[in-house]
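Hi R.,

As promised, here are both runs. First protein below:
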Amino acid sequence: MKLPDLKTIRLKGPDERLPYRLREPFMSGPELSLYRVLVELVEDRYVIFPKVGLNDIFFIVRPNENVHYFNKIFRKHVDFLLCEPKTLKPAFAVELVKASLKNEARAGDQFMKDLFLGAGLPLVQIPAGERYEIADLVDLFKQALVKVKDTGALRATDKSDSVPMCPVCGRMMVLRIHRDGENAGKKYYGCMDSPHCPGVVEIG
């Protein structure tokens, strides 16, 4: 099946179009330069995903008790996520770090370090530039991996920390309590988009 010829497709007039436009460029100069070097570095050992949302990588333990921490990762992303080819399990995260003297910027970089280290996922923070050397990147990857191993940080495996995703819409669920009926007083997980989404997971 052939792709349609764009010349034959009727384009909507300015007044008919939704107010969205394609962002150009998708990557900045330093991001694109780093991506090309990463492709050469990892070859076929990892799949590289650019601009991955933190909310797609991490879940929050007891989200109804930790709304503050949800806000810290909402609408934020890591520049590159390197995943194992067969399982797409995250193996490394790569973040470009801009040189800045602002306390806010330094605090943001430190939060990213703490976030990934606490979850046991190596974070490679690379100073932004126009050119990158593979030898330098290899050293940074090794440092990030050693740091995770030295701290003994592990991915969450304790079932008490696990929060189910909504079986209806796939969003995060929060712990709730039945207020009435035969299950009154019992805890359950309800979709965070309730009452718009009816997703429920009973406990026990």
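And here is the second one, sequence first, then its structure tokens:
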Amino acid sequence: MKTTILTLFTAVLLFTSCTNGKVDTNIKMYSNVWDEIINNGNLGYFNEDNFDTNITLIMSPKNIVGIEAAKDFYANYITGFSNVEFTIVDIFGQNDKLVKYWNFKGTNTGEFFGMPPTGNKVDIDGVTLVKMKNGKIVQEQDFMDNMAFMQQLGIVSSPDNMAVIQKLYNDFTKGDMEAVGAALDANIEWNEAENFPYADGNPYIGFDAILNGVFARIGAEWEYWNLVDLNYHDMANNQVLVTGRYQGKYKKNSAVIDIQMAHLWNLRDGKVTKFQQFADTKGIDEAIRK
């Protein structure tokens, strides 16, 4: 009886050791392959030594099947991003199954799945379920926040953009220039409409230039300058369009304006990076010259 128990215990230990050894081998091979492909841009690692000929990337609405198809898919990441950092944060497995927790960082400086580069930086986490077969990668399925990824790329606008711009206008109305400045990127590019009275400094770079070249001049030359009938339009590529009217009274001749305007705002990471004004420059010119 003792011999039987000892034999069974030995068999379990041997099986566990072999299983763990197989998982460790798979993890080492798998980690090395993706480090070479993503971090080193070595697409040559898509070969029959590393991947099963029927490697399948589980996708919706259609899976990607085959080594060349998988290679073409991931080539978009190699050509689409620079300054790439791909990190396998954690990886573990059982038998021929692995689970990978990863992080991807990069700057979109090249065409990405046919889309022109945005220049935006991305920092995204994800999890991949992996199946191995005979020491090769046979199936992968990624799970990540695709909406967050698209927002970071700038392809889909951040849902916070509208709130940032609405607060900016509210702060401007209250005369809180410190809060207005806080909403702007340090290197914001600001452009007044061509032939507008304050377009002579275009492009204004940075808040101090805008404060002195636009806001201070408006305060000095106009008895009041109000923005009314504002409508906010959320747009793609992290842009917000605001339409409305300027109402003001010019100090020198008491001329009153009531003219159309539109403001186009570009945002990144919750900050305004670019501003373009559109306005009825003829209407304001006539008022100033009265």
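A quick note on the second one: The two ends are 113 Å apart (CA to CA). Let me know what you think.

Best,
J.
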